[in-house]
Design a protein that fits this description.
By secondary structure, the protein is of the alpha/beta class. Helix content is about 40%, strand content about 10%. β1 and β2 form a beta hairpin. The radius of gyration is 25 Å and the shape is globular.
């Protein structure tokens, strides 16, 4: 077992002056310059690094000391350990050979915005706590709402003045789902005259079986009875989107059984297959029961800044909330999930806190937005700066070009898959995700095909030259090829396809 270093010259690394100055301006400049050099080198070399690391669980603890140091050390020592121990254990989401999950995009403007926000380290829970942070977030959300052609009712500020709606930047889609579920829950309880939460066992919520698993987790956190969380089966007949007729049938049966339809989650671009639930038709069904409708457009919402994809949000004017995550596909680093609500008061009624130590004239005037009242916690990061920096630096035209380029590369890959009779595209491609697999051929059964596809994925990922993930669609093991890493170019997609073809040939021939 290691021992704690008790060297009395604990601050020797900070020079002759032994006073601790963690924000010494010269140190800030020196450390950040070295960090920037590291980032530059990383982006220059990431393409050549194995996308998936070949490390075993617990590797880092074995390489770095297991007890915290007492003595200080030069910053260069920490940077050396980052290079030698941390980088080799990273899954490189920034790699242009990363095709798993959904992209985690980034940009120079976003990194700069995040760096500046981190340096300022503001905690903007109320407008007064940091007016610029609050107003920057509100402005950035209103800008993005305009790029998405959202109705004015979702905006904080409109041409006519302050709107009834509003937005907030949260960490993840999970948070957006949770806060809207809580608001819908409270509204439904008031509607049925429940005393407190006594009537919560009557409330029912709905989503397609392709909806992200985080929705069902958020429902449990919001207190809904698991028996009343309805996962509605989908199939190839609707391209795995939610069937409004099936939804209506289930909701009618629930009402007959004494339940209260409370919330429907419609997804635009599901994780498994990029399925799109029909927003307008779902909103029509929800209106019959006064149920809250939320649109989860975490991934595909970014595409809707392009006119050719905006139709996927048709009907948004009749929903209660919508969220999307620029940290997935709109060049803004984690974490950045944007939530808009049509009636901000429905959110703040459930989430508002007003302790004496936070009271101030600006809040009391009703003229400002206190973003703490639109989220779970009170403290919050200055996320709005990096999102504003991205839009201000690149403009709508460049962001649209980025989306269209990724979609074009995904279509190229899809065309290659369709042209090879050993493969099949399992579901129609909507955006920049292609779901494909080796299809059964000759004496190969569906079970054999599943094994072959699993082996294909494992072999590809072991090479370090590409990283793909999988899903299950219609009971089949399916590979997901997600285009969109910020450094990706057509040559990376073509190289991955060549590797897929070569590896498939080896599997079919029985080669190890």
């Amino acid at each position: 077992m290691g021992s704690i270093d008790t060297n009395p010259t604990a601050f020797a690394a900070f020079g002759d002056d032994t006073s601790f100055q963690p924000l010494n301006a010269d140190d800030v400049r020196s450390y950040l310059h070295k960090s920037v050099d590291f980032i530059y080198d990383y982006y220059k070399s990431v393409e050549s690094l194995p996308v998936l690391p070949s490390v075993e669980p617990g590797y880092l603890r074995r390489q770095l000391q297991s007890v915290p140091p007492t003595s200080s050390a030069p910053f260069d020592i920490a940077m050396k350990e980052v290079r030698e121990a941390v980088v080799p254990g990273m899954t490189h989401w920034a790699s242009p050979n990363f095709f798993a999950f959904f992209p985690s995009t980034n940009s120079a403007a976003a990194i700069a915005g995040d760096l500046i926000a981190s340096a300022m380290n503001t905690v903007g829970f109320t407008w007064q706590a940091n007016p610029a942070a609050t107003e920057m977030e509100v402005l950035a959300l209103d800008w993005l709402a305009q790029l998405l052609c959202l109705p004015a009712g979702f905006m904080n500020r409109t041409a006519a003045g302050r709107g009834t709606g509003g937005g907030v930047i949260l960490g993840t889609t999970s948070e957006a789902m949770l806060v809207t579920l809580v608001s819908a829950r409270d509204a439904a309880l008031r509607r049925i005259g429940s005393d407190g939460v006594a009537g919560i066992t009557k409330l029912a919520v709905y989503a397609a079986d392709q909806t992200h698993s985080t929705f069902f987790k958020a429902c449990r956190l919001a207190g809904f009875d698991p028996a009343n969380i309805k996962s509605i089966p989908t199939g190839a007949d609707t391209d795995y989107g939610l069937d409004p007729e099936k939804l209506l049938e289930i909701m009618k049966a629930d009402v007959a059984a004494g339940l209260v339809p409370t919330y429907i989650c419609a997804t635009v671009g599901t994780t498994s297959s990029n399925a799109v639930d029909p927003v307008g038709a779902i909103a029509d069904v929800a209106a019959m029961f006064n149920a809250w409708v939320h649109i989860d457009a975490a991934y595909a919402g970014s595409a809707c800044i392009c006119p050719e994809f905006r139709h996927h949000l048709d009907g948004v004017e009749r929903v209660d909330s919508i969220s999307m995550s620029p940290h997935k596909w709109l060049m803004t680093c984690l974490d950045c999930t944007c939530l808009w609500v049509r009636d901000a008061h429905r959110l703040t009624d459930s989430l508002e806190t007003n302790p004496e130590y936070l009271k101030n004239d600006a809040t009391d005037s009703g003229a400002v937005t206190d973003l703490k009242d639109m989220q779970v916690g009170v403290g919050r990061r200055f996320r709005g700066l990096k999102l504003w920096m991205v839009m201000r630096t690149y403009g709508a035209a460049k962001l649209q070009e980025h989306i269209r380029s990724d979609v074009a590369m995904a279509k190229m890959f899809e065309d290659d898959v369709r042209a090879d009779d050993r493969f099949e595209v399992v579901v129609p491609r909507n955006f920049a995700l292609v779901c494909f697999r080796i299809k059964p051929q000759g004496a190969m059964t569906e079970q054999d095909a599943d094994k072959a596809n699993h082996e294909l994925m494992e072999r590809l990922n072991r090479t370090g030259k590409a990283y793909l993930a999988h899903t299950a669609i219609g009971g089949k093991f399916v590979l997901r090829f997600a285009v969109g890493s910020s450094l990706q170019e057509e040559r990376h997609v073509r190289s991955a396809w060549e590797l897929i073809k070569k590896t498939t040939s080896e599997i079919i021939k029985g080669e190890k």
